[in-house]
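Archive entry. Fields below.
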Amino acid sequence: MIAYGCLAILIVYAAVISIKAYMQRKRVPTSEEVDEVLLTILNRGRDTK
Amino acid sequence: MNHKQPVQLKSYSITRYGYQKLRVCKHCKNFTMLSEDGCRYCDKNKLVSLDEHASSLVRHSHIKVLLIALLIAVAAVLFGDSTEQRLICGTIGLIVIVVLWRVQAMLRPQAVSRQLLELIKQEQQVIVNGVFRDWEAAIENWNKDKPLTYAMLREIATLMHNDTIRMQQLHMLDSFILRKDMDLELDPLLLRHFEPLLANYIGEVAKLKRELIRDRTLRYVLRHEHSILRLESGLAIMTAVVGASLRTKHYVASYAPLVRRYAFSLPKDRFLRLYRMLAEYPDHDWGGLQDEVYRIYQEKYRWDADFH
Ligand SMILES: [Zn+2]
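PREDICTED_STRUCTURE:
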């Protein structure tokens, strides 16, 4: 029975990982957003344009 | 004028996104914007782009997940009471791992993009430190190698937007004899306040690379016209900028009063261009520019064959 228990854990684990990845696929930052975040970090509190 | 040196400027590579200018050392995890081969901090040749780094982080995390899944599958097989049970566990385990692997592969590009943003957010202090160290490294060459200093400052200024770094670049540019074939820029160097170094640079660029004179520069010279005119070469700067703006109808129409004020000082070829542009669009409302151009034509070029 322990074998099936392990199998169940494996399936749940794979399902959780897959669903999490699938749910996150829509929240993908664009390169423009990445740039924006980086520029904000580097120009914080300075005499930026 | 005699303090200017003839120099060879390194060409500047344009990346589609600013973050692509940044690289990280895989060994010591420090960041740099300067295009050196080896890492300045650990001397190892392990600098990679952020895209590459994010991609390898995702690969590692995916491998970790697959290994955990494999471990559970192996445990299931080992705990099997019979051969049949082991066979079932082995087969199903394998199928689950393959499915998981396919799902990971399918969603990999999205995972890499998320990882990239995550990396920047997590490492922000290290990134800031790295770029400031780059800036210091550029300034260390100030007296030794001005073209190199300029090239380094220009790279850093892609991501660092402040008037200090713009002024430092203008100081470097002021010490060079500028040429047409140089890879120059103007918009990123525009300051908010009036600065003679910038005004002189604008004047030079207007003569060498007219295409760099765009709306932002025209607004700058318009805003600081009086201060520019107080400079020794003020009139020449204004005239060169106006001459450069005659490339398209858009600029002439948008800055007609400015063009009108300097039309008289334009060299013949530029004035001819303006004259022809106005003749091409006689019905357009140029707001008094036409009268001034006609007056100059009457005064200076009435007998000139090029105008007929
Ligand atoms: Zn390193």
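CURATOR_NOTE: The beta strands of chain B are 5-6, 23-25, 31-32, 47-49, 176-177.
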